[in-house]
Design goal:
Elements (H helix, E strand, L loop, with lengths): L6 H10 L2 H20 L4 H11 L2 H8 L8 H11 L3 H8 L8 H9 L3 H7 L8 H25 L15 H15 L6 H15 L4 H24 L1
Helix pairs in contact: 1-9, 2-4, 2-9, 3-9, 4-5, 7-9, 8-9, 10-11, 11-12
């Protein structure tokens, strides 16, 4: 029987496992920094947003409505809709956080991210999942903040940015999660596959971008609940 790793050692495992996604997150961060500067967001506010919300898709959604006067309600709603996929992420991790304090759970949930959750399922039973996703999240946070800062400072080197070109973000998130879960034999990809199919159908039907992610995730959640009930009775 393998020795159970401590939360701290599992954190390091998560941190050191994130190299591939560190790079992809870095590229998205540079794009966000350039776009944020283009719409008039100050460097301080852009970094503050990146540090507190730590969500590429949600931050891009907020920028679509970044004009004066700021429509706070619309921004909050769009961010909530785009972030709705976290319902699925939370459902997939809830049992792994048993036995940890509320403080540790809050920190881990703040740093929770898509690839961290998916790759954690590949780890053996000796790895503490909370520590793993926390370490993975720290790596992604470092990549995100560093790349956003670079993007904010190179905006003068690129042309004007068209925010409408980022409308694919919701469907791209679903597609990415489908691939990650499908590659992972220890996880249940069905909810994400169905979410992806629904997302594609909604795109073809011309449904508003902010509704595509919401509806596809809600259907994925419903499938996950049904699947869980069938498995556990």
């Amino acid at each position: 029987m393998l020795e159970k790793l401590s939360t701290a050692r599992s954190l390091w495992v998560g941190f050191s496992s994130s190299a591939d996604y560190f790079v992809s997150t870095f590229l998205f961060g540079v794009m966000f920094g350039v776009t944020a500067s283009a719409v008039g967001l100050s460097q301080f506010n852009a970094m503050l947003m990146s540090g507190f919300s730590f969500s590429a898709s949600a931050q891009f959604a907020a920028l679509e409505f970044w004009y004066s006067p700021l429509p706070y309600g619309t921004i909050a709603l769009s961010v909530a809709l785009v972030s709705s996929r976290n319902l699925l992420l939370g459902m997939s991790m809830t049992h792994h956080f048993d036995g940890h304090s509320l403080g540790r759970r809050i920190v881990s949930l703040f740093l929770l991210n898509d690839p961290g959750v998916v790759t954690s399922a590949r780890q053996g039973p000796e790895v503490d999942r909370l520590g793993y996703v926390t370490g993975y999240g720290i790596s992604m946070m470092v990549s995100w903040l560093l790349s956003v800062s670079i993007g904010l400072n190179i905006v003068n080197l690129v042309g004007d940015f068209d925010l409408s070109s980022m409308s694919f973000a919701g469907s791209l998130v679903i597609a990415t999660m489908m691939i990650l879960f499908a590659k992972n034999g220890n996880s249940k990809p069905t909810p994400w596959i169905i979410s992806g199919i629904v997302s594609l159908l909604l795109v073809e039907l011309g449904v508003a971008n902010y509704l595509i992610l919401l509806l596809s995730v809600l259907i994925g959640v419903a499938v996950a609940i049904v699947q869980e009930r069938k498995t556990n009775g």
